[in-house]
Amino acid sequence: MIKVTEDNFVWCIVTKHAHRLFPFMELYELHEDDSESYIETHKQLCEAIGRGNQIGIEGGQLIFKTEVRQPW
Question: Residue 22: which domain range?
């Protein structure tokens, strides 16, 4: 599953697998206001899950280009 914030940043939601990924990947607690907190310890991970927040890894920034075509 993914989450796209209002600033067009993409998060890959890994909440179900967060405990296994924690030692190997940078995980973030995703808040309702589209902010995030870097998870540094296993205790922080457990607390974030306990609060019911999603856990994500960075997916990247969506970039939209508008192309203007000439009518001729």
Answer: 2-61
